[in-house]
Amino acid sequence: MKTQKFFLVTILVLTTGLMAFSQKKTDSNVNEQLTAELLPQNLKLKDELQKYVVTTDHFNSDIFGNFFNKMRVKGEYTRGLENGKVKWSNCSVAMSMSRDAEFEQGTPLKYMEDFSYSVSEDMLKPENFTTFTEHSAFAKNLIWDMMAIEGFGWSAWDKLKLNEPYSAKDFNGKMDLAGQGSFENKDVILTWTGISKRNSENCAVIEFRTMNNPLEYSGDGMSMKGRSHYWGTIWVSLEDKQIEHAVLFEDVVMEMNLPGQTNKQIMDATREISFVKVI
To answer: How far apart are the C-alpha atoms of 86 and 118, rounded to whole Å?
Structure first.
């Protein structure tokens, strides 16, 4: 009995010691990363299979905050496929006329099932969306929002300094929205604000924001013109450079011509988007 107790105590001491050593090593690595001038420059993306659930909740109201309706657009995004391709699946759209009601199961967007492509600026061209039908504007936003998150998370990696805002001019400029309008980023600001944990991995926390971005759109029987503010946070792994999590928030004030109406309507639309890694 005494021998068993001795072994149990020994194992406990060894385990506690190893945990303490591991924690000290982790703390040391974090301190080194925070005191470095830049993010680790030798870190390469381990572009293996990754899957995310992207959920976009739209809330429509007047400019005084009086609620009209809400919409949820949701899909699964997979990257790390053969030849560097990505794809979407299980995409759906759900509507609700009550702010507090739970969303019902969405209507599937069948044209998005296994929709595959290579990530590039070509995905702003209309010929890539010839199969898109109902709710096409919202489906395209899934694609463009994910492109923005990956771009903000990776493109300026070698330029970001801790707590120093960086003007990412490469993202600025007017973009054609697949022949149905335009969006102009005025001044994208990226800031590496620290290190946190996501999915049990140390991550660089990168914040992004850009304000007063002109927006025009015409399609699905309606047209609109307005401005967009959007901002958010990305957690990028310091082990394999994969994006572990991200959130994006957007506020759009717009003048709209709705189907069947002759008078223009001033509306405010907000979007809350989560990018949750599941693989």
So the answer is: 6
First to last CA, the chain: 46
Cβ(129)–Cβ(141) below 8 Å: no
Q: What Rg value do the Cα atoms of the chain yield, rounded?
A: 23
* pLDDT per residue as tens digits for the range 244-261: 999 999 999 999 987 777
- Determine contact, residues 149/157, Cβ cutoff 8 Å: no
Q: Which candidate, 96, 52, 59, places its Cα nearest to that of 74?
A: 52
What is the C-alpha separation between 254 and 251, in angstroms, rounded?
10
Work out the number of other CB atoms within 10 angstroms of the CB of residue 107: 13
Does the pLDDT at position 28 exceed 90? Answer: no
What is the predicted pLDDT for the residue at 222?
A: 82
| Domain range 46-277, its CATH number among 1.10.357, 2.30.230, 2.60.40, 2.40.10 | 2.30.230
The one-letter code for the residue type at 29 is N
Domain ranges of the chain: 46-277
Confidence of residue 32 (pLDDT cuts 50, 70, 90): confident
pLDDT tens, residue by residue, 107-128? 999 999 999 999 999 999 999 9
CA nearest neighbour of 234 among 269, 191, 266, 270: 191
